[in-house]
Amino acid sequence: MIGVVYLGNNPQTEERMKYLPGRQVRITRNYMEAADECKSHAHNEHYIIFYEKNVRTEDVTAITYLRKNCEGVYIILLTDKLNGEERTVYQQCGINDTLDTKASVTELNKKLQFISNRESILFDTQVSKKRILRFQIPLWKRSFDILCSLLGILILSPVLIITAIAIKLESRGPVLFKSKRVGTNYKVFDFLKFRSMYIDAEERLKELSKSNNQYAEHHEDADPKTTLTAPLGDEAEQTMMEMGMESDMMISDDETMLVGDDFVMAESDFNKQKEEEISNAFVKIENDPRVTKVGRFIRKYSIDELPQLFNILKGDMSVVGNRPLPLYEAEKLTADSSIDRFMAPAGLTGLWQVEERGKGGNMSAEERKQLDITYGQTYNFKLDMKIIFRTLFSFIQKENV
Fold first, then answer.
1. Which of 203, 288, 317, 339 has its CA 20 to 30 Å from the CA of residue 80?
2. pLDDT tens per residue across span 372-394
């Protein structure tokens, strides 16, 4: 059990600390008292210190003292918004994390649970920062991947060669298609597939009628979106001030403004724009003319996926794991509730792929995410063999994907 210490003088925070389930929080008023609490118990016992932000100069002294004199502590700063300078100062003096000073009991408990689940990593002073929350593939799994990928490349080499020749003969362009994917530990790598489309696919896509897109949503009389644009820096601030009451009419008091290289935009408008961009990225067109004849064949029998054997041999992926995601999907899965999905091997096939086929392809994104997390927490040799066995039986797809 990890000990919990509160250092501060905020009655509201103290009251919330009392209701943390299964936790006995020690309340302290100064850093000397907090240090004594952490040092007076077992040498290998770990502590989470919730430090209530006060005067910065006093905070720096207190946090620096706690960091130097207490082993096995994880310091969370309870604070309102920090500017860039404050953030740097507090990080340099030794805080590990931050939480809003008005964080609810549920939020406090989630943070405690997240840290407790990773106690052996977060409190190991001998582990370098580079290894914090990084997954390392077990020797048995890496050995199996190397053996399988080498055998696969050797046995399937005739198929690989014939496919490459067929692609080259039918249309100009590279044999392989590379796309950026996010795998284990959020590592970005080049994901390999046989090219199944003409090289001018993007231009052909623009020419296709919107009505041919099976995923397109048609909206009539859509309301125009309000986008605020202004130059950066002092000019941006000046522009916002000049907008005065007019901007207040369009933006609520608690609306967050995002400032980019050449724009100022309400966060809600930015999120809507992002959702539309992602939605438009999913295009499925019946009898898609961008796909070559060879492409249709290799997609139907999943031959286009075979170059990923080289990804496996290189170490980017494993035979079994969580499917590596495109960048736009991975960026949405960086919260505490999703991070375990990337603390596992990226794979050629995985748990949700075989489960989804069993459900006839009907599975929500949340169900997929939870299956990925489940695999990351429970994978073993027996489970990997079961997934491979089920994948082989569903290898020939009933419809194009």
1. 339
2. 888 888 889 999 999 998 888 76
Write the DSSP assignment of 160-200 as a string of letters: HHHHHHHHHHHSSS-SEEEEEEE-GGG-EEEEEEE--B-TT
**Cβ count within 10 A of residue 93:** 19
Token couple for 396 = 């020939």
CA dist 182 and 381 (Å) reads 24
First-to-last alpha carbon distance for the chain, in angstroms, is: 48
Tokens of 69: 């004199």
| pTM assigned to the model | 0.52
| Continuous segment of H or E residues that includes residue 47 | strand 47-52
| Under 8 Å between Cβ of 74 and 96 | yes
The first and second tokens of residue 399, run together, are 């419809």
Q: Label residue 50 left, alpha or beta by phi (over 0 means left) and psi (-120 to 50 means alpha).
A: beta
Closest CA to 73 of 117, 115, 18, 110: 115
242, with CB counted inside 10 A (0-12, 13-18, 19+), is exposed
Partners of residue 179 on adjacent β-strands = 191
